[in-house]
Amino acid sequence: MNKDLFLIGIDGGGTGTRVVLGDAQGRELAQAASGPSGLGLGVDRAWQAIGAGCVEAFTRAGESLDWARCVLGCGLAGVNNRDWLAAFRAQAPAVAGLAVESDVYTTLLGAHGGAQGVVVALGTGSQAAVLDGNGDCRTAGGFGYPSGDEASGAWLGLRAIVYAQQALDGRVPNDDLAQALLAHTGAHDSDSLVVWLCEANQTAYARLAPIVIAHRTHPFAARLLGEAGLEVGKMIAALDPSASLPVALCGGLGAPLREYVPQIYQARLREPLADSAHGGLQLAQREAARIDG
């Protein structure tokens, strides 16, 4: 393998981007973070965020970024849209190598170290995946905001804001949960909330999820989190009907939602070995080996 290469693992979602920089052997040199790079927010924005994160990682490692010496393994939200994926590849800088998969696939690689298992990735969006004994990857969910991505941050936020809407016109109490949601949006009446709603995207809704979790004992929040747990269970059951594989809940909402997953799955839950960005680094290693022949 070319020892002058750098391997870069990218985890790109709707809330942020994480970068892991490694040497040609995959030894970690530095990590960095930047803004969102999920393809649903735009390909230009995705490459800007990835570029910024890579510059920061190289700076922390005391190296200079030279795309021609870089092999990227990208796990990105939105790659199941073929048009977005094609545009992303077309706008790539002149890198030594580029492998692009869904963020749930790199989450799977990181969580189980390439071994068999199930992951449910729970961040701004959501998707579950399984790696079976034949090395095949299958997925469940991931149809995207606003109709899919069950149990994700955007899914929770989209439903939580309904409570705030109803509090403003007296359909539900204007209590601590409603006030916390309205304070986050900056809205003080129906008209100002409508302005926020008209501008909100999946990232904005996902930022409401921590408020729901912070108010987990509130009847509305508790019911919503319980529904999220049921959705996670449905994804696990769809991918592993034999109920025999380990399951890792990953992403920023993995730990907070763990207690809401139905009891029949609790004994199979495992902590992920590594995150999606490190799974991206594994993907970059594979791509480098393929290039090397």
From TrEMBL:
Keywords: Kinase, Transferase. Residues 8-216 form the ATPase BadF/BadG/BcrA/BcrD type domain. GO terms for molecular function: glucosamine kinase activity. Signal peptide: none annotated. Pfam families: BcrAD_BadFG. Its EC number is 2.7.1.8. InterPro entries: ATPase_BadF, ATPase_NBD, Euk-type_GlcNAc_Kinase. This is Glucosamine kinase GspK. It comes from Paraburkholderia sediminicola.
